[in-house]
Amino acid sequence: MIVEPASEINAADVDFTSLSPGQSVNMNHDLSLSYDFSESGAGTYSIAPHNHFRVRTIGDLGNLTDLYASVQPLTVIISGTLVIGRPSSSMEKRAWFTGCTAAQTNALYSAASEAQIYAASAVDYLQSHTSTTPRYTTWFGEYTAARHDYVLNTYFKLAMNKFYTSFSYYCTCTSTTGRLYVDPKSYGIIYICPNSGFFNSRISNGSYTQAGSLIWAASQFVDNGGAQQHSSAVADTKSLAISDPEKAIRNAISYDFFVENTPSQD
Fold it and tell me: Which of 57, 132, 204, 235 fits as disulfide partner to 143, beta carbons 3.0 to 4.6 Å?
């Protein structure tokens, strides 16, 4: 499970936790919401959390620092119900929204439609620009034909997604620091975190838009190429493009920022 953090503006204002030296914070995560053990079956499993974090020192709003935590795997025995129930894709249109208010549902319809347009427009752009451009290099780094084709193929897959008609949206996340998240193996299911300010952001046209965030989320589905989160903000995403283009073309938020294209580049 990878969670998109709240925007840099929100994070700088309120959505962070200050820790004193030696202080710790406990958080509970319901793994049944994200993992399907039906294929591997009941048995003994070793579960370890992701150990890579991005931290910002108090008073320094401009830089994020990599932090790698020491983790200790937990050995557990899994039995009983091995997969959480999902809504049937044959259900009526509005049944694809769970826990969302009418206003949130309407906003997601609009964002899904714009995400579809974003993906299709990216395909058109990349098919008509087969050499280096400022827009491409800003988010994906040094141009090569192979990397260009990888990015184009990812956007082609995204353009074939049905954000508007067949994705399932759950407005059940209670996080204030993550905008939305997905389980990469659960294609088409996106969890929205209303308390993070997700619905306060623009539908499209700008940075950290709702439509752009849906592109970020969908790029992580294994069926779409399984992008990772190697950066989370504009500055470090641009730095990643310069320092490691191979990671940049596999970076989820690079696909978000590219389609938002803010400020506009050719």
Answer: 132
The CA distance from 264 to 266, in Å, is: 7
What pTM was estimated for this model as a whole?
0.68
Peptide bond into 245 cis (omega under 30): no
Work out whether strand 43-47 and strand 168-170 pair parallel, antiparallel, or are unpaired.
unpaired
Residue 176 · residue 6 · CB < 8 Å: yes
Q: How many CB atoms lie within 10 A of CB 134?
A: 8
CATH code (residue 249): 3.40.390.10
| pLDDT tens column, 172-200 | 999 998 999 999 999 999 999 999 999 99
The count of domains in the chain is 1
**What single DSSP character describes residue 144?**
-
Closest by alpha carbon to 138, among 235, 238, 232?
Answer: 238
| 73 located within any domain | no
Token pair 């938002």 is found at 260
Assess if residue 126 is contained within a domain. Answer: yes
206 near 260, Cβ under 8 Å?
A: yes
